[in-house]
Amino acid sequence: MNVKFVLEYEGTGYHGWQAQAGAPTIEAALRDAIQSLTGELPVLTAAGRTDAGVHALGQVVSFRTESNFPVMQLPGALNARLPRDIAVRRAELVDPGFSARYSARIRHYAYRIRQALPRGAYERQYAWGLHERLDISAMQAGAERLEGTHDFAAFGRSPRPGGHTVRRVHEVSVNSIGDWVTIAVAADAFLYGMVRRIAGALVDVGLRKRTPEWIDDLLRGSAAAMRLAPAHGLVQVAVEY
Predict the structure, then answer these.
(1) Given a cut of 90, is residue 141 above it in pLDDT?
(2) pTM of the entire structure?
(3) Which member of 32, 51, 188, 217 is catalytic?
(4) Is the confidence at residue 171, as pLDDT, over 90?
(5) In sequence order, what DSSP letters do the residues of the chain get, joined into one string?
(6) Rg (Cα) of the chain, in Å, rounded?
(7) Is 51 annotated as catalytic?
(8) Which domains does the chain have, with CATH numbers?
(9) Would you place residue 241 in the very low, low, confident or very high pLDDT band (cuts 50, 70, 90)?
(10) Segment of 6-15, 160-169, 218-227 carrying the highest mean pLDDT
(11) I need a surface site. Which of 96, 125, 199, 208 has the fewest CB within 10 A?
(12) How far apart are CA 26 and CA 14, in angstroms?
């Protein structure tokens, strides 16, 4: 049978989703929990391979199993075997052709920033702390330029060697409540590091180091002076199918 999980995790202590020798990863922890429960060591497919330190509220994972363990009981049984910073929110049977990665239509990410911050303690592992105050209107103007179908080569690399870098971005929004700023991005798919580079570029616009029109230069291929926003401000929010 083909099983779909919705997974939540706090990524601070992990080297990202993908299993790798000698480093703790989300994939390895989930696979170990499944093996402990069913005796199987399945191939796991995730909607997105989050980087080291990135969090998730709605990561979707699919895998095939020969086990007869009741699917509705899988979240509780696996959560009893997983570290406390990883949780299976729900599980369901899906048709044999479903793939968490290839069946996804829209992926949602959010990047959180705390501005005007001399020194932060609260939620410091979940947001990029900035000393300065941001120009939110300028960031919104820059964000609008990212929407649509563009070549995002300046913002990251394809997950496949030699793969294309054209992506369709459905929406980029910038909202603030007090000192907290959230950049939300929805796209059909993302390049490695793409959301973190979007956040870095929009922060530079918000700091008035760059104008909103600079985003057009980036979409034409220029990667001059781009920076990668810290991983800990990024959370994978949800996936639509």
Answers:
(1) yes
(2) 0.94
(3) 51
(4) yes
(5) -EEEEEEEE-GGGSS-SS-BTTB--HHHHHHHHHHHHHS--PPPEES--PPTT-EEEEEEEEEE------GGGHHHHHHTTS-TTEEEEEEEEE-TT--TTTT--EEEEEEEEE-S-SS--TTTTSSEE-SSPP-HHHHHHHHHTT-EEEE-GGG-B-SSTT---EEEEEEEEEEEETTEEEEEEEES---BTHHHHHHHHHHHHHTTSS-TTHHHHHHTT--TT-----GGGEEEEEEE-
(6) 19
(7) yes
(8) 2-94 (3.30.70.580), 106-240 (3.30.70.660)
(9) very high
(10) 6-15
(11) 96
(12) 7
Q: Taking residues 3-32, what's their average pLDDT?
A: 97
Read off the tokens for 203: 């922060």
Give the separation between CA 195 and CA 229, rounded to whole angstroms. Answer: 9
Which of 210, 208, 229 lies closest to 218, judged by CA?
210
Q: Tell me the average pLDDT across 156-163.
A: 85
Contacts of 23 (CB under 8 A, 6+ apart): 15
**85 closest CA partner among 60, 53, 111:** 53
Q: Two tokens at 13?
A: 């202590």
**Cβ distance 55 to 123 under 8 Å?**
no
Residues 139 and 161: their CA atoms lie apart, in Å, by: 32
Band of residue 66 on the pLDDT scale cut at 50, 70, 90: very high
Residue 159 has pLDDT above 90, yes or no: no
